[in-house]
Amino acid sequence: MQRKRGPVLAVIGSMVGLLASTTAGFSADNGTVDAEVTVAQAAACIELSASSISFGILALGAEDAPGTPGITVTNCGDAGLTLFASGTDAAGQGAAWTLDDTATTCVDTLGLDAYHLGLATPAGAAIAALSTENKELGALDGAATTTQVARISTACPGSTGAGQSMSMHINYLATNVVVPPIVLEALPATQENADAAAAYLLPASKDYDVPATCSGNFVACTGGVPSNPLPQLQIQATNVASVQVPATTRWNTSATLGVATLQPIPATVSGVTCNITVNSANGAQTTFAGTADLNFQSYPDPLDPTNYVAATNVNVTGVESADLSLTGGFACDFADAFKSSFIPQLVDQMEAYIAGNICGDPASTGFIPCPILP
Amino acid sequence: MRRIAPSALALGAVLIVSAAPVDAGKAVSIDVGTISVREQLVPGGEYRLPTFGVRNPGTESTSYQITVSYIDDQAALRPPAAWFTFDPATLTLGVGESRPVATKLTIPADAEPGDYTALIGPQIVADGTGAQVGAGAAARLSFTVQPSSALDAFFRQLFRFLSENPWVWIGALLVLALGVLWFLRRRFSISVTRRPE
Prior knowledge:
The complex is a heterodimer. Helices cover 15% and strands 41% of the residues of chain A. By secondary structure, chain A is mainly beta. The termini of chain A are far apart. Helix content of chain B is 21%, strand content 39%. Chain B is an alpha+beta fold. Chain B is elongated. Chain B has helices spanning 6-10, 150-164, 166-187, and strands at 13-16, 27-30, 34-41, 46-55, 62-69, 84-87, 90-93, 98-106, 114-124, 131-137, 139-145. The interface between A and B is large, with 84 and 82 residues. Strand 4 (52-53) of chain A pairs antiparallel with strand 10 of chain B.
């Protein structure tokens, strides 16, 4: 009897352990856990012009008979759709046909109690032979429509269903267009890559278009019409240096900027239109100063190895009123207020040139602007 | 219903008409495009997926059924509809109305490990006979089931059962306590007597 005590205690102990572990696993919602998911919020919206169609009276063995009316499918959303369609087996009183999406006919191997259901263009060109699973019909742009005609080949002579009304379904299904995942080149957070990224963002010389602003203070937008071609600004960067912030994947980058317009920039402030010429050499300090943070980051999972550089906190300083000169008329000669209102716009624009995300170029060892990272 | 000519019946004709082919004002919309489960799911596990919204963008009140379907010739495994629980599973929405749908995914203990994909979303409920045309909108769901031992799956299902039925483990606890009492009484004798003076 004494020998049985060990197993009995073991069973009791394991039951206690089981219950203890079970109670530890209880959650507020009956043991269901939230799955870690990535969700793409995008609406898929579809509308049909008809909820039922008629094929009329057909003989067994009828081939490719069209239904009426045609079915107009409308994408009632703004985003593009991928359109699918499926069918069902047909059923009648004491009759059942299996949906077959092969090209067989009654002449060869279709056999009894099987039928074809398809979709075609109004002109009769086949789009898809339907099966009980979703077949892709193609894409449908936002707010676009497509009209299709259902076509049926009834079951072969000798099948069930003669004299019966057969029922079946055609189901259209819409999903959002699948966007291919963005795959970025690996970009380790090294001094070499930081220097290369800084050199890409602040090259020795680069010409930038001055974007048209056609509201508020008009810039490169004469009479409400954007300049064509746009005037350009040349930025020459020297003394580009990047210093890593210790224990981070961030580098502080600085540069000396020489800036000059390649063409005068037309601008209108308070009804006065002048042409602005920028030249950093005209000020008390002959250059501007630029600083930025270069952050090595990872997309889509921030915890994965870094694969792009985000240039943030860009600051351009040292722009003086003397760096700007105005031409265009008597009022422009005395428009110092004009200059002071334009300088912030100029600074913002230069900072925008430098800021942004840059990625490794798959085709070379250089950099390219990143695609939009959702 | 149209009257069928007797001669047509004699020739073995088939009638495939709808009672009244009509223009439809029915439409359907879903507000989620894709649901990609990042973690590997465990056989025997039960998971709550993100809620998606169903909207009636049509011009008449419409009933919807939440369905699970697949793409023809898809390479990934097909999770059976029985793995899904939708709340609500059917719904009727007035014009312009929308409603959230909660989704629960239950992976059976004997689920085949691998990558699964399915289309989940609302389908307009067909309410006629003849050749019916329906519409649906769906989100693409993808997830991976990781291999698991049968023992692990058993315990996961057991834990879920116990958590959903707390009276079972409370009862088991009582039985266990009684068993321990019985065991102690059988193995040890305790007598309380007055100390002799």
